């Protein structure tokens, strides 16, 4: 039985530690001239699951040349929207047929439990379908301007687009970037995180299969400091779209100034989850857990700061801790696992160092977790217990800085004004939620939150149809929805003279 399961897993893996995975540049699968490779690690046990070729600046330049030629010379910029839609629908269909394999591979690459990766794959399919549909919908506008002129506005692709993503949703983030860019008619140079590249590589196999013309979609693998920086810097890239840490976003913004490329940045957060005393108690506890411990807390929009009204503070924490202690931590491939390992050893060390800072910070009290799990099989992986600090205050580093792991900090508030003040007391502005049964209060609070993604009596649900992005240092621009499509277009006004005759401005 165990053997049969192992065979099934090997088939689902689709990668091996002996075969070097290549990049896709100008319609060809290529190894980097660097000759270097990188191991991809399963964070649940530290084993090598795949090996990738390590791209260089030169590889980015080759991909850019191909993307430029495909856009301007080979005619991709004139490809009918219906054809772009057809290709994207095909991608969605093929991905759906291979959903089980993609979910399994995402789990062994990133660590998150299968129930999450199954959901991520379904969401990825939906994202490709959504943007396939958007491609053919009306996008222009017409204006009544001064007679006899008629003005109209058309949306056109920006051109060559560079895209860089992180490791926390390797497949889904690929779709959030690639689907709208291709639907809008751009050509793309795409870089996944070097930590979790395998499903992006497999996705590009599907792009090849459905028949995207040469040079339209290019995949370059490698490090941020080399490949990523070249994407941000290259003068022939017209736009760079980035998701990742705020510090990296800042350096990308600076690198992009050379040719003033357009930028969109989806960055970090330290999002508040506000619970008033009149909230549905069990629902609020449940969402507080989901808000921080889903995907091991490695979610940019995680509800990592829980703000509790003082009259329910003790009771809420007691129930929260009781439930957090029952979360089943284990390898993502095990059916009963509720929380997996962190993505890498280096990231685990970063999270543990923040927990140490929390333990040392004056006033903060650790009431749950706080350790790496070292016993048994889990000791081989990068597992950290669900961790909760209470009695935290705004001056603490664990309250101000993004930890990006399963670490919740809890703050107490007195009233509505206090809750809003504490919620906004951060350089970030990505997400936030409020729990209360008072509808008017919920609206008042949510409207005062300086954040781009918000919920009332919920935390985390995200939809392809609605815009995603942050205020303040959480980013620039929006992904998803029609906003996400528009980020990949230029706007052109066309003025049409309906009565063609000399102006008479100059006498002779
Ligand atoms: P990261 O910034 O270290 O890396 C993200 C990507 O950027 C990777 O592909 C990396 O190789 C590349 N990169 C690194 N340095 C670069 C440079 N100098 N120039 C160009 N590219 C470079 O982030 P991470 O650790 O992979 O991901 C975690 C971060 O991502 C968190 O801060 C999280 O909040 C953020 N994130 C934000 C969103 C959002 O939608 N706002 C979504 C997911 C993750």
UniProtKB/TrEMBL annotation:
Gene3D superfamilies: Aldehyde Dehydrogenase, Chain A, domain 1 (3.40.605.10), Aldehyde Dehydrogenase, Chain A, domain 2 (3.40.309.10). Keywords: Oxidoreductase. The active site is at residue 266. Belongs to the aldehyde dehydrogenase family. It holds the Pfam family Aldedh. Residues 29-494 form the Aldehyde dehydrogenase domain. This is Betaine-aldehyde dehydrogenase. GO terms for molecular function: oxidoreductase activity, acting on the aldehyde or oxo group of donors, NAD or NADP as acceptor. The lineage of its organism: Bacteria, Bacillati, Bacillota, Bacilli, Bacillales.
């Amino acid at each position: 039985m165990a053997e049969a399961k192992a065979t099934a897993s090997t088939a689902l893996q689709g990668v091996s530690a002996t075969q070097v995975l290549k990049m896709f540049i100008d319609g060809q699968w290529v190894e980097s001239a660097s000759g270097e490779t990188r191991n991809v690690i399963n964070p649940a046990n530290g084993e090598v699951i795949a090996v990738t070729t390590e791209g260089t600046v030169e590889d980015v330049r080759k991909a850019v040349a191909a993307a430029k030629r495909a856009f301007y010379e080979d005619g991709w910029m004139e490809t009918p929207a219906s054809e772009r839609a057809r290709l994207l629908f095909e991608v969605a269909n093929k991905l759906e047929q291979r959903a089980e394999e993609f979910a399994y591979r995402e789990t062994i690459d990133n660590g998150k439990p299968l129930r999450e990766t199954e959901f991520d794959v379904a969401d990825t399919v939906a994202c490709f379908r959504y943007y396939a549909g958007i491609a053919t919908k009306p996008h222009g506008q017409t204006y009544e301007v001064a007679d006899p002129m008629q003005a109209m506005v058309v949306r056109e692709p920006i051109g060559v687009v560079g895209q860089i993503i992180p490791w926390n949703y390797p497949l889904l983030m690929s779709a959030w970037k690639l689907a709208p860019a291709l639907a809008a008619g751009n050509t793309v140079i795409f870089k996944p995180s070097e930590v979790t590249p395998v499903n992006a590589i497999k996705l590009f196999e599907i792009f090849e299969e459905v028949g995207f013309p040469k040079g339209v979609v290019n995949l370059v693998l490698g490090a941020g400091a080399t490949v990523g920086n070249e994407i941000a810097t290259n003068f022939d890239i017209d736009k760079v779209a980035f998701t990742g840490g705020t510090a990296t976003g800042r350096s990308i913004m600076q690198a992009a100034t050379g040719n003033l490329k357009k930028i969109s940045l989806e960055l970090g957060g330290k999002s508040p989850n506000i619970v008033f005393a009149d909230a549905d108690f069990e629902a609020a506890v449940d969402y507080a857990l989901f808000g921080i411990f889903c995907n091991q807390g490695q979610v940019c929009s995680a509800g990592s700061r829980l703000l509790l009204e003082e009259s329910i503070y003790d009771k809420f924490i007691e129930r929260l801790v009781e439930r957090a202690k029952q979360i089943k931590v284990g390898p993502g491939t095990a059916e009963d696992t509720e929380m997996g390992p962190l993505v890498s050893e280096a990231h685990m060390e970063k999270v543990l160092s923040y927990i140490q800072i929390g333990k040392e910070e004056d006033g903060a009290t650790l009431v749950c977790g706080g350790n790496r799990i070292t016993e048994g099989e889990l000791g081989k992986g990068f597992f950290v217990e669900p961790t909760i600090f209470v009695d935290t205050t705004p001056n603490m580093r664990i309250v101000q800085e993004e930890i990006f792991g399963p670490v919740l900090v809890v703050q107490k508030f007195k009233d509505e004004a206090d809750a809003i003040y504490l919620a906004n007391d951060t350089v970030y502005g990505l997400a936030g939620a409020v729990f209360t049964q008072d509808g008017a209060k919920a609206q008042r609070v949510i409207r005062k939150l300086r954040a781009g993604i918000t919920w009332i009596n919920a935390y985390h649900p995200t939809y392809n149809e609605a815009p995603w992005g942050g205020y303040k240092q959480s980013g620039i621009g929006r992904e998803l929805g029609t906003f996400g499509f528009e980020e990949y277009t230029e706007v052109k006004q066309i003025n049409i003279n309906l009565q063609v005759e000399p102006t008479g401005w100059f006498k002779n």
